[in-house]
Amino acid sequence: MLARLPNDQPLKSSADPLRGARRPLSETASAVPNSAGSLILLPSYGKRASGSDLNQSDLPIFNQDWWIMIARGSSDYRELRIVDGDAVLGKMPYVLSRNRGFFQARDPHWSHLGGPIVDERLSRREQAEVVQQLLAKFPRWCSGYFVCNPNRSYADLVRDAFKRAGFEHTAQTTYVRYPTDAPVTNLRKGKHNGHIRRASQKLDCVDISATEFVRFYGANLKAKTKTSYAPLEIVTPLIDEAVRRGQARAIAARPKHSSAIANDSGFALYDAAIVYVWDQSHCYYWMSTHRPHSSENSCPKPNPDAIKFLAMHAMQHAQEMKLIFDADGVITPGAENLYRNMFGLRKEERGDVFQRMTALERLVRNVVRKSKRWLPKAAWGGRLPVPDVFSDAAEVRRETLPASAQSGQPSSLM
Question: How far is the C-alpha of 245 from the C-alpha of 249, rounded, in Å?
Fold first, then answer.
């Protein structure tokens, strides 16, 4: 059991407690950490006679219990909860890490949506109080970064609660297309149709296993002398379980007539691979990787349109499943060019991003920033060790895009 944290104090009774007939919340509650390090608010009287919980099928895949259980990995996982007996009214999962002496909290690994998760069956008034109580218990001694779903019925309540808790609010743009929209092939511009058509003549779209994808992803990172921003060992069980549940597909672009071609390690040679996942309403473009061109010319040059080719297959599959295709965040000009100009996705959604630094970290960052102005460059080598809590946020998407997409070059996007 984890040690009691500085902010784990009994919850003060609310002046106007939840009064829902089905899920009353007690006016007095206490907080105790469970074996996983979560904070559970327990009512002072007995349990509810009927056991109910958050409806998993209604949640985005990144918020479903099975996903969170795997995505937490071996990290220092914490979870704030509001419960009524055996019923969870709301929770807020996150992983805690330490970087250069500062504690940082963020959504579980590889989860592109997180933040508070609240029972949709509660009244608006009840949802507001649950969210406020969750944010009130979030520790002040660590920084936080959360990306929240703008489509939940209580999204406005989440925005209000985060702002009251001192978080800065920004928006993350994503492009979506609806299953009732025109077929994907009708949306692309002429020259991009040519790119996809030529790629289709040279590439096969094949299903691959989770192990193959992760091995390919890791090999490509290594070839680029990069490291994964989150534990790669978590990705394999995430994909395996999602595929078992019928909520994911891993596909790769393989040169035609090349099933016997392999790289130096003996692995099958692919030009690119992606994984997309889905729930009852959305299909998310989740992860992607492409093989870099070998400077030694030991392998054939990869097709520059391989990921365009795979992304098109993903969008077509989403339309067949009657799901909303979500580009899952656009943070580079190249990615925006891919979805907006090449695929003609004009409908935007803006995810809610909330971040907060501790007072000490903000002070240190300001001191270092000011020091750069008067210290000679030779004294600090061009870079001072400024703790950057949120630098990994951009890497979530940047690592899944080729260099041309990151720089905004349209010729060989994805």
Answer: 11
Task: Quote the radius of gyration of the chain (alpha carbons, Å).
Answer: 23
State what percent of residues in the chain have pLDDT above 90: 49
How far is residue 82's CA from residue 66's CA, in Å, rounded to a whole number? 19
How does pLDDT run across 193-219, given as a tens digit for each residue? 778 888 889 999 999 999 999 999 999
pLDDT at 402 over 50: no
Cα–Cα dist 251/206, whole Å: 5
Rounded alpha-carbon distances, angstroms, from residue 247 to 50, 61, 180, 232, 240 = 30, 8, 21, 19, 10
Of 375, 353, 252, 342, give the one whose Cα is nearest residue 303: 252
Q: Which residues of 29-42 are buried (b: 16+ CB within 10 A; e: fewer)?
A: bebebeeebbbbbb
Mean pLDDT score of the chain: 77
Torsion of CA 210, 215, 216, 217, to 10 degrees: 90
pLDDT band at 31 (very low <50, low <70, confident <90, very high): very low
Which pLDDT does position 104 carry in this prediction? 92
For 208-266, list the strands marked E by DSSP.
248-255
Pairing of strands 143-148, 102-106: parallel
What's the token pair of residue 19?
């009064």
Residue 42 has pLDDT above 50, yes or no: no
CA gap 84, 150 in Å, rounded: 26
Q: What is the spatial distance between Cα 54 and Cα 345, in angstroms, rounded to a whole number?
A: 33
Q: CB-side exposure of 48: number of CA atoms within 13 Å?
A: 18
> Strand (E) positions, 195-316?
203-207, 248-255, 272-278, 282-290
Chain centroid to Cα 106, Å, comes to 10
Please report, for residues 57, 144, 313, 318, the alpha-carbon distance to residue 147 in angstroms, rounded to integers and kept in the order given: 20, 10, 27, 23
pTM: 0.76
380: tokens are 């600090």
Closest CA to 148 of 105, 199, 92: 92
